[in-house]
Amino acid sequence: MTERAQAIAAKVEAFVRETVIPYEKDERATSHGPTDELVQEMRAKAKAAGVLTPHILSDGSHLNQRETAIVLIKSGLSPLGPLAVNTMAPDEGNMYLIGKVGSPEQKARFLEQLVSGESRSAFFMTEPAAENGAGSDPSMMQTTCRLDGNHWVINGRKAFITGAAGAKVGIVMAKSQDGACMFLVDLPDPAIRIERVLDTIDSSMPGGHSIVVIDNLRVPASQMLGASGEGFQYAQVRLSPARLSHCMRWLGAAIRAQEIASDYACRREAFGKKLIDHEGVGFMLAENMIDLQQCELMIDWCAGVLDSGSLGTVESSMAKVAVSEALFRIADRCVQVMGGMGVSGDTIVEQVFREVRAFRIYDGPTEVHKWSLARKIKRDHAKAHAG
């Protein structure tokens, strides 16, 4: 690991532990996510501490994926940490995508305000299941776009759009006669209407998750991201590292939950001895140690694949499955170790449990990734035995 990444990670960890964690009881951390007032207050402190958007360097270059991993893990030590230092989803993934695909003009208009932390963004891809729209299978996309002069006109409905309420930048996916397309849009826009913000099990994302109607949205042709029909390829550019970034951040949260549960077990007495001395409790925490180490190794391995120049779709699917399932086991054991305290809001353990449970679905459910991996096994078998 590079010295620069280690130094950045140390600064981020100190900031999260000393400055961000005290905000966890702030009333502005609502059931639909922290308010923008709270986010901007924390970001002002992050900027002053020199840890705002730490994965993007002052010259605009990015840390590589392995370097990013140790920084994002430290940012995740509090559910508010990624928000405070601007490494959260969907912004981190959107910044990466615009940086890779956007034109110089698009970067100046849309990317700079995200990197500076002054604005939030939303990624409009998923559609309502009741309408047989795109979810885990983006090829089912119902949202359409058609060229009208020098503008594209977009119509459709989107669902589970994280952070749409309060976002200033949007990336909208729609289907043209050429195939999937992506557009950069300024928000709010009267043609993009939030029907409702869903009540979900998680509560870490500002703006929550919305059902959105797009009604005759007119977007200048200059705001198409890349080329018409190439949207699915761009989605993969974004999704592979974004899945891994989720693993990084929530690993940080699971590490914190383990710290809290271990402290509790080492202090609490029952049946004549500390909880940690009861095998039923101590073994759960030991299993967590093993799972945490395996998660870190899986993340580092997948990050190395991405750093090699590979698109890493297979590796990121394996990492998403292995890490999300392990983190859920870790969070579940932490709740169990702490008993009644584990299901209360007195610590962040119960929130980590809720957030990681949602993570097993977001960015592709475990079963979809396993299905994709099984298809690869079948293709590889057919190729190996051809002729």
UniProtKB/TrEMBL annotation:
Task: Provide the Acyl-CoA oxidase/dehydrogenase middle domain boundaries.
Answer: 130-199
Gene Ontology annotations for the cellular component aspect, listed alphabetically: cytoplasm
Root EC class:
oxidoreductase
The protein's UniProt keywords, in alphabetical order, are: FAD, Flavoprotein, Oxidoreductase
Q: What InterPro entries does the database record attribute to this sequence? A: Acyl-CoA_dehydrogenase, Acyl-CoA_Oxase/DH_mid-dom, Acyl-CoA_Oxase/DH_mid-dom_sf, AcylCo_DH-like_C, AcylCo_DH/oxidase_C, AcylCoA_DH/ox_N, AcylCoA_DH/ox_N_sf, AcylCoA_DH/oxidase_NM_dom_sf
One Pfam family it belongs to: Acyl-CoA_dh_N
Acyl-CoA dehydrogenase/oxidase C-terminal domain segment(s): 229-377
Q: Name one GO molecular function term.
A: short-chain fatty acyl-CoA dehydrogenase activity
Does the record carry Isomerase as a key word? no
Q: Which BP terms from GO are recorded?
A: fatty acid beta-oxidation using acyl-CoA dehydrogenase
Query: Where do the Acyl-CoA dehydrogenase/oxidase N-terminal domain residues begin and end?
Result: 2-118
What Enzyme Commission number does this protein have? Answer: 1.3.8.1
Which cofactor does this sequence's record say it needs?
FAD
Extent of the signal sequence? none
Q: How does it assemble?
A: Homodimer.
Query: Family per UniProt?
Result: Belongs to the acyl-CoA dehydrogenase family.
What name is this protein filed under? Butyryl-CoA dehydrogenase
State the species of origin. Answer: Sphingobium chlorophenolicum L-1
Q: What is the lineage of its organism?
A: Bacteria, Pseudomonadati, Pseudomonadota, Alphaproteobacteria, Sphingomonadales
